[in-house]
TrEMBL record:
Keyword rRNA processing part of the UniProt annotation: no
InterPro entries in alphabetical order: PsdUridine_s_RsuA/RluB/E/F_cat (IPR042092), PsdUridine_synth_cat_dom_sf (IPR020103), PsdUridine_synth_RsuA/RluA (IPR006145), PsdUridine_synth_RsuA/RluB/E/F (IPR000748), PsdUridine_synth_RsuA/RluB_CS (IPR018496), RsuA_PseudoU_synthase (IPR050343), S4_RNA-bd (IPR002942), S4_RNA-bd_sf (IPR036986)
Keywords (A to Z) from UniProt: Isomerase, RNA-binding
Family (UniProt): Belongs to the pseudouridine synthase RsuA family.
Domain RNA-binding S4: from-to ranges: 19-79
Organism listed in the record: Bifidobacterium catulorum
PROSITE patterns assigned to the protein according to its UniProt record, in alphabetical order: PSI_RSU (PS01149), S4 (PS50889)
PANTHER family hit by this protein: PSEUDOURIDINE SYNTHASE FAMILY PROTEIN-RELATED, RNA-BINDING S4 DOMAIN-CONTAINING PROTEIN
GO biological process, any: enzyme-directed rRNA pseudouridine synthesis
This protein's name: Pseudouridine synthase
Length: 257
């Protein structure tokens, strides 16, 4: 195994030269910036035959040979971003040791390096964004950029407009703190069920189900219809489409890229 080096082209002595290694790996589709930092600190990256474990190391991808786990890193200047409509009983992962359906079963092997930006729980449906652009993924998933997400929830019981207003105005207190909806509107209802459209920025796990469950309106069906400017539209369950350059630019603008 090559010796570890921690001073090769570091940020301290070459601040104006090259590109940070973790950014290069993210651009090459190895995951979010944080994931790429883990790859580096785990000792899986070599530059010109030398093991590099120092975050902030700057390299020139055009003139230097970068390897991850022994394989050459190819910089991807032409990223792909997908919109996928996840059906119920599909895991928001790329593989499952138990053999359950995953996102990979929907997109196949055409886009080898794409990964999902966020998740939907097993029984929820709707829009998931996927990309091979680690920089974009990092921004979309980071709480700092507060990407709004829209859901259509069908809940048990007849939910009144006063409840919707309270969820927006004061919110509810859950085990992990207070949370409010940005918007809440009733779309349809009968004696047994109410269909509501909700918008919120929180990315906490199962947050919509937890909000309504905490006030006595269990969610029977949940569909995510929009993430930032990207809409689910007419995309059929179990299918996907490639976002247009205009859509990608609108998403990048939304998250400060």
């Amino acid at each position: 195994m090559p010796e570890q080096h921690s001073t090769m082209n570091t940020e301290d002595n070459t601040a104006s030269e090259g590109i940070r290694l973790q950014k290069i790996l993210a651009q090459a589709g190895y995951g979010s910036r944080r994931k790429c930092e883990e790859i580096i600190t785990e000792g899986r990256v070599e530059v010109d035959g030398e093991l590099v474990t120092t975050l902030g190391t700057r390299v020139d991808p055009k003139s230097q040979k970068i390897l991850v786990d022994g394989s050459r890193v190819h910089i991807n200047d032409h990223h792909v971003t997908l919109a996928l409509n996840k059906p119920k009983r599909v895991l928001s992962t790329m593989s499952d040791p138990k053999g359950r359906w995953t996102l990979r079963d929907i997109i196949g092997d055409k886009y080898e390096r794409v990964f999902h930006m966020g998740r939907l729980d097993y029984d929820s449906e709707g829009l998931i964004l996927m990309t091979d652009d680690g920089e974009l993924s990092q921004h979309v998933m980071h709480p700092k950029y507060e990407v709004a997400k829209t859901y259509i929830a069908t809940v048990e019981g007849r939910l009144g407009g006063n409840v919707c207003r309270r969820l927006v105005r004061t919110g509810v207190k859950l085990d992990d703190g207070w949370v409010k909806l940005d918007k809440c509107s009733i779309l349809d209802q009968n004696r047994e069920y109410t269909m509501v459209r909700v918008v919120l920025h929180s990315g906490r796990n199962r947050i919509v189900r937890r909000i309504f469950g905490s006030i006595g309106f269990p969610v029977k069906r949940l569909v995510r219809t929009q993430i930032g400017p990207i809409k689910l539209g007419e995309l059929k369950p179990g299918s996907y489409r490639v976002l247009s350059p205009v859509e990608v630019k609108s998403l990048e603008k939304e998250v400060g890229l």
